[in-house]
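Deliverable D5.2: sample structural annotation.
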Amino acid sequence: MDLGIFIPIGNNGWMMSQNAPQYMPSFDLNRTVAERAEAAGYDFLLSMVKLRGFGGATEFWDHNLESFTLMAGLAAVTSKIQLFASVALPTLHPAMVARMASTIDDISGGRFGINIVSGWNQSEYAQMGVWPGDWYYERRYDYATEYVTIMKELWADGASDLKGEFFQLDDCRLSPPPKGGSVPLVCAGQSDRGMQFCAEVGDYQFIIGTGDLDVVRTDAARLVAAAGETGRDVGVYVLFQITMGETDAEAEARWNHYRDGADLEAIAFMTGQASLDTSGATAEKITEMKGAFNLNIGPIVGSHATVAAKLDEVAAIEGIKGVMCVFDDYPSATAEFGAKVMPLMQSRK
């Protein structure tokens, strides 16, 4: 099973908590994570694209690096690990993204791929005046299909003359192409339409892990069925929040400490309740909000042996090709997972 890391391109990683490690994103931080991941034998790194944060006491995701330029830097200081950058489609023309990908593919020696983010959060794009309009909510995968078609034509043929509904190209050229004639594509839409899109054009589908692996099985089966209709080989990567300790009790105490420090203001903004007075919220409401402190990413909490066993269980699910890990303290957890969890995983042997 492939193992990867959702690297910390935004401040404080994936925990809206005042008790979790607090840090700003930087190239040095991500270089350290990349070097430790490569040394430990991880398979890939992926950086998100985030253009507007949630505020709160932790200023959650108010500070972010840019995905492609970060991965270009990491490509130059690594030698084996696969690198994925994320593109928010409304912000960049596909011909430019195709050229950027070819460039980073060259820097990395053929280790680069793209995570396709169709874009749904209007506030991220409206601030720059590039929100396409409310029609985009319903048509974004049609737009994305033309977008990816252009990139693939440029990579494969060096030219695209696509005349579509959203793009009009006139003998658009690209050279040199990626080393393999293309780069792998990741998609993350959880809807049936999103999975259909991935089955048609993608190589990997990211799904959000949950504590209930039956849900993961169902989502993986949906992708397998969609890929069966297109006749393409598309694998599932599952996203999990990993919290480790020497014992289960130690890991659970750490997790509960993070949860107790939940940044309710940031969570209220994220969940569309920005006007909520969190100081006056009921205990029931606060408990519900604290449950979203890790963006509802499925947690795997326990000793190194417990985490390894759970991941082996995930690996046995049909269609699963890998797991993408989210950590608390990235540099130390990246090394700890590599040294103490990966050797225990039967799915890595």
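Annotation notes: Residues 304 and 341 are 5 Å apart (CA to CA). The mean pLDDT is 95.
The annotation will be released with the project's public dataset once the embargo ends.
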